[in-house]
C-alpha cells in the first residue's frame, strides 16, 4: 500500500492545471554561447566558422523539455518543407508555451 502512495500523489499533481503546461527555465548555455560567439567573430577560416556555427546552432536548438523540443522540431521541419505559415503557427505555440527559451 505504501508503494502506491507516491505514484498516486504524482498523478494527482500532474493533473493540476498548469503543471504540464509549465515550461522549465532554459538550459544554462550562456557561457558556452558567449565563448562560441567570441571565437566565431575572431575566426578567419571558413571551415572553422562553419564548425562553430553548427555547434552554436545545436545549442540553440536544444529545448528545455520534450514538449518544447517536439514543438521546435516540428516548426523546423515545416520551415524546411516550405510551409512557412504552418511553421510560424507552430513556433508561435512554442513562444507561448516557453517564452524564456524562444
Counted beta strands? 0
Overall structural class, as computed from helix and strand content, comes to mainly alpha
User: What form results from the Cα inertia axes?
Assistant: flat
Average pLDDT metric: 81
Number of helices: 5
The largest β sheet comes out as:
none
Residue runs with pLDDT of under 50 for 5 or more positions: 6-19
Percent of residues in β-strands:
under 5%
Number of domains: 1
Q: What's the alpha carbon Rg, rounded to whole Å?
A: 19 Å
Could you estimate the helical fraction of the residues in percent? 55-70%
Order of helices and strands: HHHHH
Query: How widely separated are the two ends?
Result: 43 Å
What do these coordinates show?
The protein has 102 residues and is mainly alpha-helical. It has one domain (2-97). The chain has 5 helices and no strands. The protein has helices spanning 2-15, 30-42, 46-60, 66-80, 84-97. Helix 2 packs antiparallel against helix 3 (46-60) and helix 4 (66-80) packs antiparallel against helix 5. The relative contact order is 0.12. Mean pLDDT is 81; it is low at 6-19.
Set out the fold topology:
Blueprint: H1 2-15, H2 30-42, H3 46-60, H4 66-80, H5 84-97
Helix pairs in contact: 2-3, 4-5
Short synopsis of the structure:
This protein is mainly alpha-helical.
Structure keywords:
102 residues; mainly alpha; 70% helix; 5 helices
